[in-house]
Amino acid sequence: xxxxxxxxxxxxxxxxxxxxxxxxxxxxxxxxxxxxxxxxxxxxxxxxxxxxxxxxxxxxxxxxxxxxxxxxxxxxxxxxxxxxxxxxxxxxxxxxxxxxxxxxxxxxxxxxxxxxxxxxxxxxxxxxxxxxxxxxxxxxxxxxxxxxxxxxxxxxxxxxxxxxxxxxxxxxxxxxxxxxxxxxxxxxxxxxxxxxxxxxxxxxxxxxxxxxxxxxxxxxxxxxxxxxxxxxxxxxxxxxxxxxxxxxxxxxxxxxxxxxxxxxxxxxxxxxxxxxxxxxxxxxxxxxxxxxxxxxxxxxxxxxxxxxxxxxxxxxxxxxxxxxxxxxxxxxxxxxxxxxxxxxxxxxxxxxxxxxxxxxxxxxxxxxxxxxxxxxxxxxxxxxxxxxxxxxxxxxxxxxxxxxxxxxxxxxxxxxxxxxxxxxxxxxxxxxxxxxxxxxxxxxxxxxxxxxxxxxxxxxxxxxxxxxxxxxxxxxxxxxxxxxxxxxxxxxxxxxxxxxxxxxxxxxxxxxxxxxxxxxxxxxxxxxxx
Length: 530
Prior knowledge:
By secondary structure, the protein is an all-alpha fold. The chain is built from 29 helices and no strands. It has helices at 11-15, 33-46, 51-63, 67-80, 86-97, 101-108, 117-130, 134-141, 149-161, 165-179, 183-195, 199-211, 225-234, 240-251, 259-270, 275-286, 288-318, 322-351, 356-364, 367-370, 374-386, 391-403, 422-434, 438-458, 466-470, 475-485, 489-492, 495-512, 521-529. Helix 11 runs antiparallel to helix 12. It is elongated. The N and C termini lie far apart (72 Å).
């Protein structure tokens, strides 16, 4: 496609929408940057030193977030027109947004014009912040003019980065009172509340932000990199595949937020697909012993930290300082959440080898800190269960997890047992049966059955698979329960249930071929009829 050349001196008026016949519809004021870029590229090819064309081209690249090309445009402008130092600022801003931080600092250091020093200080502080140089970033932010509203907001960001969430929250609130409501500030306030474990307040601000997003969804390529990155993290729990796709899309872009790669690696670890932990996981592929040693070193370091925090909590409580004690308990909880993945990774090495006794010994080392944590209790229960000689002990760990979900309500159906993993319920039933507590096993199954029936009364289309999965393993008793649990078949029989049920049926058939197992004739007839 060809374009009529624009006369010198008419670039700004033409591009911004004055009635010129050749490109009347292409207007920056309407946000049609991509269409304008096509025209300007033609004009720059025709006249490479045309300041107006280059300037508008850099502007359009910048607002399209094509920072690499913006860098090129403003670099040419800064060299061609040294009497316009503003181009150096724009050049540095483009480099910053392209994550070319050393180059941005180099350009900033060449700007000496007094009227631009305010912009220079702000840009340099942003670069230092992105480089994790908090001390110098704070020094630069404190050089802002006293009445600059960005001062309070940037100091809040620094406080947050340094872990002082209370001070950061105070500053973000102050910035909101000066600058008015802004979604970015609301999100920052929500994040502070979340870090302080004030979840209700955090949820309130998030709901306010979500109320502003009632608009048609945009394609990934239309979103800025930071928004797309945050959307991926927010939705990762509900839709992991979509979250991974967004993060992988970002990695294909240039530039992308530097946090993207680290977050993607951490999420891959979480979903079986921080830095010392990754190193140990990588070692696990080639040398399990080396990986175990690395995990063990990390675990010992965190156990020492947990002991120190436990002692500190006890000392603070003796002084009746509840606020400080609460913060110390929060620090303990956060350290415990870091310790548990390391502990579980250690245990998994021997779990995969089937050495459940060794797994049990690993868990026993951590009992003083983890005995009240549900994740720890659940994995200990699984470990005891798999040893096939400690069903009573395993039941002792499963029972508290299940009992939390016993809810008796006359007025409203609450299906909390269905929120418990079917494998937990199934294993507990096996524990009961193997310790001659058949009545307890049957009572638990009846409760699950009742909840499934109640759930179907509320939603006829709902498929409930708990009873089907629970009734596995004990051949004669289990097969009869499996068959009963599949009724009515149009509601119960599905891909998931058949996946488990067919294993029971095939295992039973296999065992029937051996002289070690006998099944009553009535049971055989029932299976044949079914």
